[in-house]
Structure formats: C-alpha cells, structure tokens
Write a structure and sequence with these properties.
87 residues; mainly alpha; 3 helices; 0% strand; flat; H-NS histone family protein
Amino acid sequence: MATYLELLAEKRALDARIEAVRAEAAQEALAAARAAIAEFGFTPEDLFGKPRQKRGPRRKREEAQEGANAQAADQANFDLFGDCAAH
C-alpha cells in the first residue's frame, strides 16, 4: 500500500501531466477555431453575438432604492419584545 507522501507525489505528477495535455488540447482547439474563422470569414459578431445595448441612466431606480433602504432601516429600529422603557 502506498504511503501518504507517495500518493501526494503521484498526484503532483498526474496534475502536471493533466495540465500539459490540457494546454496541448487548448492549442489544437484554438488552431481549429482560427482555421474555421479564416475559411468561412466569421466576424466577432458571428462568434459572440451582437454587443448588448447599454441602457439609459438608472438614477431614478437607484434613488428610489436608496429611499426605500433608508425607510426600512428606520422601521427596523424597533423593540422586538415590546416597550422595555415602560418596565
């Protein structure tokens, strides 16, 4: 039976092999993607879709949220067990 340290050494070696094979596979995938782009003339929009349209300013919503948060904070400051000052 392998010892703990031997298993750790095997794990490090396996992790290194995995990373090397992953890097090679990534390079192959990138080369295939580049070849397809060159062959078919794909554009960034073809690959990634159209960029999202930026929406207008959201100040009104943010200001309303800030006001609601302030009101909730004011209401949160109450005594959960009744009016302790009266006791």
